Amino acid sequence: SLIELGPFYTTGTQKIKSSAQGFSHPAYTDPTLPSVAMRAWIDGVDVDAKDGSDPAKAVQRIYDLSLLSDPPLRLPLGKICVAGIKAQLKAIEQDLTKYEVWSDELEFDA
Fold it and tell me: Distance (Å, rounded) from C-alpha 59 to C-alpha 81?
């Protein structure tokens, strides 16, 4: 099974934020660098807010998954993850409906 995890609240964010603060080597201060964008995002995270899901509960779900005789190919965990996949499927359905006719009459001529 492919386990797709949404955001989970852990103390990891606090540790990342504390290590990201302070001195940045001049070679890594260009605002176009992904590392700069990541540090800016981390600076905006409220490390005390329990956003996301409980990782201990997710571990239990993953264990339960391991016991299934017929597990799903994909298992999204977390409401945000499920909502994201539903939005993606909706967009795919819209494209499929809009361009379905492009597949008409592509068979070989008899």
Answer: 16
CA angle 35, 5, 79 (to 5 degrees): 115
Q: DSSP 3-state assignment of 94?
A: helix
Q: pLDDT digits over 17-55, tens only?
A: 666 566 678 888 898 999 888 777 777 766 666 667 889
Q: Is this structure's pTM higher than 0.85?
A: no
Residue 72 φ then ψ, to 5°: -70, 155
CA 81 – CA 86 distance, rounded (Å): 9
Task: Count the neighbouring beta carbons within 10 Å of the beta carbon of residue 12.
Answer: 11
- Going through 45-99 in order, the beta strands assigned E by DSSP cover 74-77
What value does the CA radius of gyration of the chain take, rounded to a whole number of Å?
A: 21
